[in-house]
Design goal:
The structure is a single chain. The protein is 28% helix and 24% strand. It is an alpha+beta fold. The protein has two domains: 5-57, no CATH class; 63-239, PEBP-like (Phosphatidylethanolamine-binding Protein). InterPro entries: PEBP-like_sf.
Length: 242
């Protein structure tokens, strides 16, 4: 009925950002069981909402399609120190020389101007290394529970949860060639208590399954909202020094 349709629209708007994948599956099953009793308008509304919830996080297929190119989104930027180099969407994918790679030795400052003040975010740095399978990456950095009000203006990250401390863009692929380093930002449904695995040494960082990690957390993730990357060419003869 029109009243039911209005109620469902209001309810879906208020909760769609907080649903976990399990809740989404449960609701999908529920909608199947009652669809025969719903009006066509209500059925269409529910179907559209379910689609929007499922689309809030990349599927494994999307991760595969975007494995080597995550230049997308707006208002996401990184700034290094001491050279104050800025990486944003306009120069995303740039190949950096050795003098700039050195500037990434320390964790860059992160800014996401579109961040919501009362929302928490996750920032991740990965490398689609040669030794990894299609759905895996080498993990360079993973920070949870970043306050949106700090991201808006690029303030230092405090009171966060460091699942994997920052590791400079040294490639862990074998052989020389072009290496890619990627940064992505995700929205969390809430501040979360992390009691899972920590990724600090090389063995733990290898073969990191991003999609699986996000799916296994209590908090629901939206995104990635935006991504940036840069490349470094490593001559085979220089690999040992890189």
């Amino acid at each position: 009925t029109p009243v039911t349709s209005f109620f469902l629209a209001a309810w879906s708007t208020s909760v769609k950002a907080t649903m976990t994948p399990a809740t989404s599956i449960l609701l999908a099953a529920w909608s199947t069981s009652v669809k025969a009793t719903m009006t066509p308008a209500t059925s269409i509304l529910l179907a559209a909402w379910l689609t929007s919830v499922k689309a809030t996080m990349w599927t494994s297929e999307q991760w595969a399609q975007n494995r080597y190119n995550v230049c997308f989104g707006e208002s996401f930027s990184l700034r290094t120190s001491p050279r104050n180099y800025l990486l944003g969407i306009k120069n995303c994918g740039i190949e950096l020389g050795a003098e700039y790679v050195f500037d990434w030795t320390h964790r860059p400052s992160v800014m996401y101007a579109k961040a919501k003040t009362d929302v928490f975010y996750t920032v991740m740095m990965v490398e689609p290394a040669d030794h990894c399978e299609e759905a895996e990456y080498y993990l360079h950095w993973l920070e949870l529970n970043i306050a949106g009000q700090r991201l808006q203006v690029g303030r230092p990250l405090i009171h966060t949860t460091t699942v994997s401390d920052y590791q400079r863009p040294k490639s862990f692929s074998t052989g020389g060639g072009q290496k890619i380093f990627q940064f992505m930002i995700f929205e969390q449904s809430a501040r979360m208590f992390y009691g899972g695995k920590w990724y600090h040494d090389v063995a733990q960082r290898r073969n990191f399954k991003v999609h699986q990690f996000l799916r296994n957390q209590v908090s629901h993730f939206i995104g990635p909202l935006a991504g940036l990357q840069f490349m470094v060419f490593v001559p085979p003869e220089d690999e040992a020094q890189y």
